[in-house]
Write a structure and sequence with these properties.
Blueprint lengths: L1 H4 L11 H4 L7 E8 L2 E9 L6 H8 L25 E8 L4 E8 L8
Antiparallel strand pairs: 1-2, 1-3, 3-4
Length: 113
Amino acid sequence: LSKQLCGKPVGTELWLLDDVAGHWDQIRLRAFATIDGRSTAYQDGTLAGMRTPADLISRLGKPLSSGSVMFCGTLAAIGGIRPASRFEMELEDPVLGRTLRHAYDIEVLPVVS
């Protein structure tokens, strides 16, 4: 339910799939969560731990149109899923020597009964 209710923040830059498909497994994802005012490692690993874009697209059963974006899951949370006031994440491409970064703050809404 939480995946359906929560927004999906995205960064302002993208990489073309053709530019990274050949070394997908070497790309590293890192995420940090600010919990009780302290930044802590939340995720860290390579994309080798996820399905490849080719596999996901084949499961879709049709080609993606030009300009499409596909959400593909994520790595396990270090220490489990937990609330935070801020999330920061990055994808590092060691082959092409570049990194995408994004961050967002969380506004906790009151529970209304």
